Every structure is written in C-alpha cells, then in structure tokens.
Description:
Elements: H1 3-14, E1 18-19, H2 20-26, H3 34-52, E2 61-62, H4 72-80, H5 91-105
Parallel strand pairs: 1-2
Helix pairs in contact: 2-3, 3-4
Amino acid sequence: MSPLAAALEDLAARRETLSYGALARQLAIPGPGSINRLTEALEAIMAEDAAAGRPLRAALCEGRLAGGLPAPGFFATARALGLYDGADAGPEAEAFVSAQRRALFNP
C-alpha cells in the first residue's frame, strides 16, 4: 500500500478529513508543487477506487477555500469517471461528498 493510500485509510478509520496542504506535509511531499503532485496521486487513487467499486478516498481531503469540500479537481475527476454530474460546490456537491465519506467511515 502506498503512503498516500495508507494515510487515507488512517483518516477513514479515524473518521477525519484533512486539508490538501496538511496531507502533503504529513507525507513529506516537497514543495513547491507539492499540492499538484498530491492531487495527481489522488486522481489516480480515485480511478482505482472507481474501478474497484469503492467509495472515493480522495473525498477525505478538503480544499482550503472549499468550505469542507474537496477542491474542484476532485469533482472534475469524479465527472470524468462517470460518478458525478454536478457542480463543484453547493447542495449537490455536499451530498455527493457526504455520501462518499459516510461509506468510508462505515465500511
């Protein structure tokens, strides 16, 4: 299991979320560009989760200015994977992320 996958599994087990920046620091991803490298890895994990029929572990990340939701790239990737067809914010986005997190917190 990759360090990122292990960190996400730990977050799910603790029923917690974490900002992208805090996760990048926890994983010691060097900057600048650490968030970009992290989000690329998260997008790959989203594809793995989707292919395996699992909830999206990347839903445990929060954008700094996203009000507790993941950043827009999460929603763009979910749309590209055919899992979501809504906006990056608002009630529909909140419901989608909440459902993903519930599934992760209650396996």
